[in-house]
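User: Please predict the structure of the protein below. I'd like the answer in structure-token form so I can feed it into my own downstream comparison script.

Assistant: Understood. Taking the following sequence of 506 residues as input:
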Amino acid sequence: MDPLVTRLPLDLEKPSPEDKRADKERVLAALKKAGLSVPADIGPEILRTLPGLLRDNDFSLTATVGYVRDRAKVVDLQGASSYGIAVDIGTTNIAASLFDMANTQKLDVMEYENPQIEIGPDVLTRVHSSMQGEGARLHRLLINGINALIHKLCNAHAIDCSDIHAAAIAGNTIMTHFLLALPVDNISVAPYTPVANRMDFAGPGEIGLDMNRSGVVYIFPNAGSYVGGDIISGILSSGLYLEEEPSFLIDVGTNAEIVLGCREWMIVGAGAAGPALEGGISEIGMRAIQGAIYSVEVNNPPVITSMGKGGFNVTCKVIGNGEPVGICGSGMIELVAELYRSDILNQQGRLNRHSHGVEEKDGARAFVLYESGRKKLAVRESDIDNFLRSKAAMFTSLFVIVKAVGLGFKDIQHIYVSGAFGTGINTDKAIRIGMMPDLERSKFIPAGNSSLKGAEMLLADRGLLQRIDRICDMITYREMNTDGVFMKEFPGALFIPHTNPEILGS
């Protein structure tokens, strides 16, 4: 594998009356002699220091070289080490990995809340704010968040930020536009057109990243208005583009992006299932952080009380093992699945008013999930309605895409699940409520943060650039927001598990 940056020791021939080559040309000749096989250049910033460096070091230097496709550039002549960062820009969180580029060893990985949350928790709110003149602020907030994460990683390993020579960054289409301070006005309105899909390489100074000013930064390309570089990176890391038989990649975060394909073709679409795994779908909803209920079990048999109601023993698992503060997406999925299994919730998503734990106030029902002292956590029927819309959008997107290519769920070889869904969801319970197709469980493969993994892979192997280009060329993008088949099939998926349960395994 050939990393995005390499270090080459150079022993240069000294100037003489017979050899009057300029310092730059002398270094370029030494690079070629050291094995550099592509054309190279040296920028003005490094050239300004070159004469003194050569003579102070008796014409022996180690050059850090960055690669920009079929060309190279000298990015440093002074650093004793070289590091790289892989970045996944999420709507809620930014994740980054730090690599020692000498051996492409991962040193650490950290997360940082996306500071754009102060403007709005979701992409559409931020797009609207940008259209109202807040674009520069959104760019600045995002860059500040990435730089804060860079400094956290560097401080943890006693590294100077100037020794970071390479970055690979993946994010959804809108986050990528905010990264580059590009207008997003036309992404949210028909016909949903970004400024650009293939960003390729940029200079750290152009973006505002706290790293070596001469370093190389690769930005993963987008595939459509709502299918961004995070999905391209996920396709790369999952290996879906190498599959012999059709397979799914499902990335669920704030939105749900779905890829169906194999080594010969790919179709990509996006649906609005993400709120099921974020904090905004319920009054007690929250992200998967300390205090969040992430797993729920309702234990049978019921206990008959003096009121004639069935009492159920509800067991909640909480991140951090303390008292619960709210419920995150995985907990919501499990709660709905358990309530349905226990007949507390019917197929239409209505709570049984005769069940223990169900309370009614002003004509609205809610299930009390946790109660202790003055604290009570209850999920309302309206919260469940919102959740069922998200789960319906999730399943319908899968169904529409698989039918669009003349296949059925039984034809699917693998289902790679990433994002929040891939790291915290109980697959059996998601299938029970009709959020996922009912297939052999061995077909479901957790992919973790597939976007970050793809960026990490590129840091270690620049040859993957050609594969990324190939992935982009293979993709057909299907816009779910205006899809007639989606709108026709959506209502049936609002029920638990579906008005036609046979469709789940068809």
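That's the full token string. The radius of gyration is 26 Å.
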